[in-house]
Amino acid sequence: MIRPRIDAVAVVVPVRNEERLLARTLTALTAAVDVAEAARLRCEVRIVLDACTDASGEIAARFAFPLVECSAVRVGAARRRGVAAALDALDDVDDARIWIANTDADSRVPSRWLTRQRAVAEVADVYTGTVRPDFDELPALQQRHWLSTHAPGRKNANVHGANLGLRAQTYLDAGGFAELGEHEDVDLVARCRARGAVILGDDSAEVITSGRYVGRTPGGYADFLRRQASQLSDGAPGEAVRSVGSSG
């Protein structure tokens, strides 16, 4: 199957009180956008401030990305709002030639994040990229466990909103992000899969995400890391610990 070439990318970052990590997130994203635009990939970035009560808005305003305000306090609603705003700005581009790239406000994307996803779009409709917790925030035991269970070049079956991309036509056909408080990423990919979308998951554009144990949603990646750390400290076998993180 020959897929249309991607000419533009809509990039969405939902933000809910991330003043501690947001600057480094947007600095990394700026570098990725610069690489993409140098490769003639048009980028429309939307930073969605979701009922922030800290300095996130002031920090985001220092960067050259348009801001979107919402008060949903639900990451699915924030992502949906950001995608809609970015696609509106790309209304002169066919949906089949737009890619939607998603990350989180506590995460740092690699500089080739967007150009790699454009390459993936040649063979797949959805990209589920890996994430790596920031080792500076993890105890040595958990760092060693992560390295021992994550071989370079691995395929990825998990879904992480911090490293998720898909063709705009695929997104729209599946109904977009549901306005959920968590697992909106897993829900969307499941609906895409049910419609026959081709999904590729690997570590070729791995994103570094926060290694914190208390996150913005009860069942997100922070919860997985916290439970993993507890099992490791209790001497749980590695296979049991790995089974905790079926999705992020």
Question: What would the keywords be for this entry?
Answer:
248 residues, Spore Coat Polysaccharide Biosynthesis Protein SpsA, Chain A, seven-stranded mixed sheet, three-stranded mixed sheet, disordered C terminus
List the helices and strands and how they pair.
Layout: E1 8-15, H1 22-38, E2 42-50, H2 56-60, E3 67-70, H3 75-89, E4 98-102, E5 107-108, H4 113-120, E6 126-128, E7 131-133, H5 140-149, E8 164-167, H6 168-173, H7 184-194, E9 199-200, E10 207-209, H8 221-233, H9 238-242
Parallel strand pairs: 1-2, 1-4, 2-3, 6-9, 7-10
Antiparallel strand pairs: 4-8, 5-10, 6-8
Topology order in helix (H) and strand (E) letters: EHEHEHEEHEEHEHHEEHH
What is the average of the pLDDT values? 90
- Please tell me how large the radius of gyration is: 17 Å
Task: Indicate the proportion of strand residues.
Answer: 15-25%
State the total count of DSSP E strands: 10
The level 1 CATH classification is Alpha Beta
Major β-sheet strand ordering = 3-2-1-4-8-6-9
